[in-house]
C-alpha cells in the first residue's frame, strides 16, 4: 500500500475466514484504516491483489465489483449518516438503490432493522437529534439493510464511553450471529479486541509490514514479537490483574 512514492505497508498476506471477527490492529499511523479502504476497493494496491472466495477483486470488472460490494455492509468512524435524512431514510437508501422492493416492503424492512439495533420508534429522527452511540447503531442498521455477508467497521467505538462501546460490541456480535456474517474491524480498543475478535493482523509502522497474525488472545501470550505482546498487554499490571 502506498501513496505515490510514500510506502505505507508491504508484504501483507493473511486470510479472513468465513465467520471470523477479524481485527486490523496496530499503533497510530500504521495504516489500519488504509488497509480497510483497500479491502473495500476505495484504494488500489500498488502491488498485489485482494481475493474474495478466491476471486480477484482488483482484476474483476465494474459489474463484478458491484456484485461483490452488494454483499458487504460498511460503517464509518462518524457513523456516516446523511444529516438531512431521517434514520428511516438513511436505512432505506441501500434498499432503494439496490433492490426493486416497493415502498411498503422497504418501510417494513427499515422498521425491522432499526428495531434490531435498539432504535425502534426513532425512524423519523435526524442524526443531530440522537446521541453519538445511537448514531453508530443507526449506521449499523443501514449497513445490515441488505443482509450482507461481510460487515466492515472502521473504529466503531471511536468517541464512545466505555459502556456504550461495550453495548456496541455486543450488538456487533448479535448482528454477526443473526446474519451469519463475517466481520472485519479496525480498532485499537483492547476491550473490544478481546471481547469479540477471534482472528487479527498486527501492522507495524516502523517495519511497514505485518508482524503478527492470529487470535489476539493467543498473540498476547505467545507472540514472538515483544511489540505485539506489549500492545496487547497494556493496562495490565505485573501480576496479570487489571491496573
Automatic annotation (TrEMBL):
Record carries keyword ATP-binding: yes
Domain ABC transporter stretches: 1-232
Domain of life of the native organism: Bacteria
GO terms assigned for molecular function: ATP binding
InterPro entries tied to this protein: AAA+_ATPase, ABC_transporter-like_ATP-bd, ABC_transporter-like_CS, P-loop_NTPase
UniProt keywords, alphabetically: ATP-binding, Nucleotide-binding, Transport
A matching Pfam family: ABC_tran
Residues of the signal peptide: none
PANTHER family: INTERMEMBRANE PHOSPHOLIPID TRANSPORT SYSTEM ATP-BINDING PROTEIN MLAF, PROTEIN TRIGALACTOSYLDIACYLGLYCEROL 3, CHLOROPLASTIC
Name this protein carries in UniProt: ATP-binding cassette domain-containing protein
Species: Candidatus Litorirhabdus singularis
